[in-house]
histidine kinase
Amino acid sequence: MTECRLRPEVEPVYEGGLKSLVFDKIKEQAVSVDSPSVRFAQFGPSSRRIRLQTLVRLRWLAVAGQTITVVIVGLLLQFPLPLQEAGILVGALAVANLTLSAWFPPTHRLGPKSALALLGFDLLQMAALLFITGGLANPFAPLICVPVIIAFASQPLRHSLVLIVFALVCTTVLAFSPYAVPWYEGEPLRIQPVMQLGVWCSIASMMMFAAFYAYRVSHEATLLADALAATELVLEREKHLSQLDGLAAAAAHELGTPLATISVVAKEMERELGPDDRFREDVLLLRSQSERCRDILRRLTSLSAESEEHMRRLPLSSLVEEVVAPHRQFGIEIELVEKNDRTNEPVGNRNAGIIYGLGNLIENAVDYARSKVIVTVEHNVERVAITIEDDGQGYAPDILSRIGEPYMTKRPKEDERAGGLGLGLFIAKTLLERSGAAIRFGNRDSGEPGARIDIEWPRSVMDAQDSK
């Protein structure tokens, strides 16, 4: 059992982030569903683009730092320094900042190519300033890593790789700088070639390590944010579908009276008209269609109405049966074991998150069971526990250590059917934990093959669970 899938309406393949289909689904609902999750996801991938104002502020810090350094080194310490050239380079960065601030609004977000161009300009400006002040012998040489780190933390990988290659080229050129490090006159500071090679290796290794770390942290944060947005979408859709039940029941109730009136009038007209009257056929059609509408409305009234308080209350046994019922038609036996008497079972409010989360886990068990799934329900005065077991191959050891991570795509070699333990399982786990549950994943300890999932709530949570 190695895959937990989304339901069909939100079941695209997720690899490396949310696909456009999810955002399209959210946008379709954005007019009618006013929720924070929809408003967040409506921006889509563009919401993770770096703001121009963020780069502008970082560049002003660079301008201030470079200016202070030049003033201290050239004017206060009186070291020989090409002040004119350094001033031109610092001024170019300041002018570029002023131009960007004048042309674009503060909320403008940069595309990958624009961000790459700006960071490339920053890197080139920093490299030129270091080149005329000693190259790799300059103690500020490691600052050339800063644009690379920013790129890996905020930009797509392919654009960031271009920048790091450019940075390594600039670092290599700095090793051949003909300019001396600003130092006391008459005491030239000589840096041996082997020392320059060591500095180059130090800067290159620091650049690659910091870039890799920034990329991994940023990438994982982005995946988690996408997965949480999808979780909110799924929960919102579950609540919306539940509300449609109540709307259907209300519509059936409101339309029942006028349809009954139409039916009565049609019967009176049929009685008054003669057997050969030319309107008799139309009256019979009107009566039959009104009866058909009443049959449809009677079926609608069988749906649960969220607006009725007594229908919102759901005993634990009914909740489990409601979750299990849709999965009994797939050729896999589902055995429901209740260890306690129903007379003292907890009764709480219907919770879309619990229903969807348990349903996803049971669907997962049915998909990978050989012949049987066992759902065990247990409760006492302190806790409520549900255990889901199947007789499939179970979880591989390396999978168990990572269960619950979004976008996990590793596949066990022994099972070609296995898909990724990804967003579906993350959503189910998140929704159940949000309801107050503690979840443990593992394999059956009875010596038989198969996976086992233990879900446990405090009794007080399940006895009066508010719908969220």
The chain is about 55% helix and 10% strand. Confidence is low (pLDDT under 50) at residues 1-47, 304-308, 409-421. Residues 241-308 form one domain. Residues 137 and 181 are 6 Å apart (CA to CA).
